[in-house]
Structures are given as structure tokens and as C-alpha cells.
Design brief:
homotetramer, DNA-binding, mainly alpha, 10 helices, elongated
Chain lengths: ~190, ~190, ~190, ~190
DNA sequence: AATGAATGAGCATTCATTCAT
DNA sequence: TATGAATGAATGCTCATTCAT
């Protein structure tokens, strides 16, 4: 019969993708079993079968979306020369600008999933991974403590842009990143804060 | 004369306070007409009567909750001496520690309301106010651009603490705030002149 | 408009009645918000509005159904003369026979609601009321302790009939009730077991 | 020779045991293919493979759980001397106390399975077996009719304890059992002859 | 023979909002 | 002006059962 659609091993992945699409359009709040099932064109029961709870689905989605900024930084920094803090700051500011300049909804989605961890403990580990990914991308270029501060500054700058309908000011970001990076100890491998 | 006041202005405030208490305990998602009405001990219809929609109530609540960190900084910085960037950094780091060290739920609530603006345009102006309040507290001590960067860094540091179950590292915050403040144009930079 | 059906003060009662009708036909397990709403011809939301939970509805239904056997005994014993234990036993056995001889589904319903208390603590108090009602009907004719034993024996006899597709043996019931009643202390008001 | 047994008879038993454990903890209502399969640590399909329906599994479980009170009585009465009704009543009351004094959940489970027969005709024969088992344990000590009444009284007393959160009153049970047994035809009645 | 992916029906419950009073 | 009864839509989730493998 043509009716059977049984055994679809990629079903799980398709559901996660659908969830990301839903969140992309309507925010995390829009993710429900029903909306996701409809978007993925699978029966409702399929979403609850593959994911024990919505949180589980959310974690999977967050994990998949996680790579946006991290990849941008990793790719962008890989090419850059091994200059000093000022050059690194300029590169970071430029990459950030490229990322923020992309589709707004995509950026919002990534940050919304990240920030959702505030009230959903289940997402905390994945949020930590997100921070780690970005930190790791910076690792080869500065010490871990400074890298952590860069992540914080980047997060704060992005938040200002996203939350206040502001525009990204690349020069501002470059300057402030430079200040943070300027204080780094001489060799990237050093890891003490002071 | 014998009539109790017809137009009860306290009623509205009590509802807002109840909404904050509800959000404090169960997050923004916990705010519904029912929970708020129950918490405020007012009839269900009263919440829909005084607030045309839930968003309207949310905005009122956000505006009221907004003053936490801002007030901490304003009060704390008012007392502090007019030292250089390093001293300011130390003071800020200390104040931040005090704020984050307080009741976790209160801190989460303030940030949750702030971050909710990401997906609710109605909250954007209030989120901007939040940032402005913190910036204003810093205004007398550094230039506006640096103040904005400080706000970004503070946000990022708070986020790392809140989103990853991490602990606040005051020394780390002090060091990084010092780096950002050190680059400010007019004020003394790295020199230790009091 | 003819559409409006608002303000129906008897709505709550009608829902309880519908629940009893549903349980009558399909057992307690058949009681769901949907089946009851359909039976009562009210919107689904109406059942959850009037009863905070299914248990609450169940308690109301159980309380309403509670009076079956109790009323039979109260009415039947009221008429009977003030004979000794043997006469009381005969009367009880006859009344029990009349009650069990009625519509089977009704008897099952009453016992099912009563027995449901085993796993639903919320129903325990109502089940206790049930036992108290029957005990109270016997109170004027014997001492409380014996009355309690009569209730136990009656319950056990009914159970045998209901659970094993057996037939009610009035003579058997009369004999055993007489044995229990024969041991009662001389005066009904006495309340010691021995 | 080298093949592990194809037809695995233990599997079926393990599933029944798991079902009893599930019912023990969460009541009959907690028995589902999923919970049982998880508890038995067998694949989901295994439960539907070995049991055509849930009722079939339930019957198997009920039959296995059936022996609790019956065994207590058989064992306990076997040892006891061949005393008269009063001694038998005392022994029965003591045994009942021991059984009810054991783990509450176990007692509830046994009665719940027994009472479930009220609405599930498939369980009726097994419920009848339950009554027969208890009756059989009493058979050597009194006449069949009195034994049946004893079972009824025991059931009623247990029900009062289980349904009303009451406490078991051994003296009460002893007295009432004695009254019923005293009326038995052949055996010595109130006389204490050993 | 055995399994686990799949599914459609159904569940209790929550909710924002409406509107008759 | 103020309220609470009413409601339809939606939500997360569970389940017995089927059936391709």
C-alpha cells in the first residue's frame, strides 16, 4: 500500500529541524508538539515518541543551533594572522558584525535558545557548551581567562543590540575588545587573571 | 463621605506586585490572569479589567522590577570616593558580587524580565530603560561610551553566572572591568593616582 | 442571539448527574472530562471550570450516590417493629435482598465508588461517610460496635454477590446477621465490644 | 545444543512479576505496557507478544498475587490447635492483624486486584478463586456456610480498615468472628472444650 | 520468534478572553 | 464599575495496539 510511511530513520532529525524552523519564526514559545509535528509533517505522536518531553526536544534543538557564532569565530579566526590584541580585536569586531548583520531571526533564535537556560535548568549544560565553544575558538589567541571575558563582552554587546533595537557599532566593539585583550598576559598560554 | 473610594488606585498596584511575586517564584511563564489574581487576592475579572492584556501587565511589572541592579550601583557608587578606573572597577565588582550574592530568584527575575524583551517588542523600551539606568549610574565616573561597555561586560558576566550555574568570581570581574575602564579617555588610566 | 446559553446556575449539578450516569454505564474508569461534558451537554471547559480536578468531581458524585443502601436501611428499619436481634436480622436480610435485587448497574456503581477510595485518598472521607450512614441507620437498634460489625458483614456479603456473579442468599444473610446481632449486649446503648 | 533456549518461559514470568511490582507501587491503573516493560527490563514489544491484551496480563498477575491472605490463613490455621469457635476466632483475628500489619501497599494491591473484578468480568473467576482459597483454609475448622460468612466478615473488616484510613481493632474482629463461629452447627459453640 | 518504531485517539488541565449580570 | 461564570482552543503527554523488519 502507498499509505505506509513506516520506518523513517531520519525522522528524529527532521523533527529537530522543524523545531528550529518553528522557533526561528515564532520564538521558543511557539515550539509545541503540535506546531513541530505539523512543520515536520509527521503525526503528533511521533514527536512525543522520539522525545520524552518538550525539554528534551529543546535541548536537541539548542545543541544543533549552538554552532552559529562559534563557527563564525572559529572559521574567521583560523584565517587571521597571529597578530597582537589589537588585530584580534579588529577581527573579532568584524566577525561579530558579519554575524549580527546576517538574518536577524537566526541571531535571535540562537540567543533565545541560549538565554532560555535561565529558567530551564535542563538547558544549562547546553548553554555552558555554547560558552565553551566560543571560548574554545578564542583559545589559541589569548589566555583562557581573557577569553572568558571576551565572551562576556561579546554577549553583552550582542544583548544591547538585540534587546534595544540598537545598531551594531563595530568601532565601539573593536575598541572595547582591544581594551580587554590588551590586559592579557604576554603569552596566550598563561592562565592567571592578574 | 461614607462611601469607600470608588476608583481604587491601589488595586492596580497590588496586581502588579502580585505579578512580580508570581514571576519571582515561577518565572514569567507562571504569570497568568489566574495566578496573579489569586496571588493578589482579587477577583479574576479584576486583572483583565485593569490591564487590557497580559503584555500590558507584563510591561508594568518589568518597569517596576527594573530598578534592582541600577539602584545597587547608584547607591554604591554614590558613596565611593572619586578614585581612578582601578578603584571604580573594584567597587563595581564588589557591588556586583553583593547583588548576585543576594537571593538568586530575585536576580533571575530581573534578568528574565530584561531578556524577555528579545521576543516581545512591547518590552524593548523598558529593556532600554534598564540599560540606561545602569549606564546613568556610571555616568559621573567615566565617559558614556566606556559606561556602555561596562554595562555590556556586566551583563555578560552576570549571564555566565546565571546560565551556567557558575559562581561569581569577583577578582575576575574586577580585573576585566579595570581593563575596560583603563582605556577611558579623560580619566586617569593605569596610573594609581587617587 | 439564540446562541447564548450563559448563566446556568444548575450547571454544576447537571455535571454531577451526568458523571453518575456515565459511571453507571461504563464504570468509574469511564468518567473523563470529555465523556461527562458530552453526557451533560455542556462544553468541555465547563467541567474543568466547575471542578478543579477529576477527583473533585468524583467526590461530588460519590457523595451524591452515597445514599442508596443507607436510605434503604433507614427507611426500612424505621417501619420495622422493635423486635429482638433475630427480627432485626430478618429485616436487614430482606432489605438487602431488595436493594441487591434492584438494578445491578446501580448497585455496582455505588459499590464501585465506595471501593475506589482504596486507591484514591481523596475519596476516603466520603467512603467513611458511607459507612457512617449505614451505621447510623442501625444505631437505634443495636450498639455501635455491633452496628459496625453488621456493616462489615453486609459489605462482605454484597462483595461476594457482586464479585463472583453469585446470587444473593437471603437465608444465609439472615442467619449470619442474627449470629452477629445475638452477641450484642442487652441494651442497644451499651458500646463495649465484649 | 549451543543454542540458548528459543522459547523462553522465564520471560513471561518476569513480565508478570514486573506487573505486580508496578501495581504494588502505583496501583492497577499504573499497569501499562510501557511501565511493565520498563520494570521487567524487556522490550516493549515483548509484553504485547506474550500477552494478547492488558487484561490477559492482569489476569495472570491477579492469579499470582492471589495467595497472600489465603496462605497466611492456611499456614496459621494449620499450626493452631483444634480448639472451639472462640479459639479459632482469636487465631483468625491474630492472623488478620499480622497480615494487615504488614506492608500496606501489599495489602492494598491484593484487595485492589480482588475488587477490580467488580467491573472486569474477565477477573471474576479469579476473584472467586480468591474467596475459595480463603474458604478452603477454613474448611477443616468449621462448616462451609459458616466459612463463607467468615470470609464475608473478614472482607468487610479489611475494607473498613483500608477504605477509611482506620486502624485494625483485633479485639473487635475477634469478638465478631466468635459470634459468627458460635452459631456453627456441628462444632462446639461457646463451650471451651479443647 | 521477537522487536521497537510508529500512530491516532484520548487524556487532564490551563488559559486568555468574553460578557451577562 | 466590577465581577465571575463561561468557553473554545490549545497544551504536554500517555497509551494500546499495529506492523515492517
Amino acid at each position: 500500500m502507498t499509505r505506509t510511511r513506516r520506518y523513517d530513520p531520519e525522522r528524529r532529525d527532521r523533527i529537530v529541524d522543524a523545531a528550529l524552523r518553528v522557533a526561528h519564526d515564532g520564538g521558543i514559545a511557539g515550539i509545541t508538539h503540535r506546531t513541530v509535528a505539523a512543520e515536520a509533517d509527521v503525526p503528533l505522536g511521533s514527536t512525543t515518541y522520539h522525545f520524552g518531553s518538550l525539554d528534551e526536544l529543546l535541548v536537541a534543538a539548542l545543541r544543533k543551533a549552538n554552532e552559529g557564532l562559534g563557527r563564525v569565530l572559529r572559521d574567521g579566526l583560523g584565517d587571521a594572522g597571529d597578530g597582537g590584541g589589537d588585530e584580534l580585536a579588529a577581527t573579532l569586531a568584524r566577525l561579530l558584525g558579519e554575524w549580527l548583520g546576517g538574518e536577524r531571526a537566526r541571531v535571535e533564535l540562537e540567543y533565545e535558545l541560549y538565554l532560555a537556560a535561565l529558567r530551564r535548568p535542563a538547558l544549562r549544560p547546553v548553554a555552558a557548551e555554547w560558552a565553551d565553544t566560543v571560548t574554545a575558538a578564542l583559545a589559541p589567541r589569548t589566555d583562557p581567562v581573557t577569553a572568558r571575558a571576551v565572551v562576556a563582552l561579546v554577549d553583552g554587546v550582542c544583548l544591547q543590540v538585540l534587546l534595544t533595537d540598537g545598531t551594531y557599532d563595530e568601532e565601539f566593539a573593536r575598541e572595547m575588545l582591544a581594551r580587554v585583550l590588551a590586559g592579557a598576559p604576554e603569552r596566550p598560554t598563561r592562565s592567571t587573571a592578574t
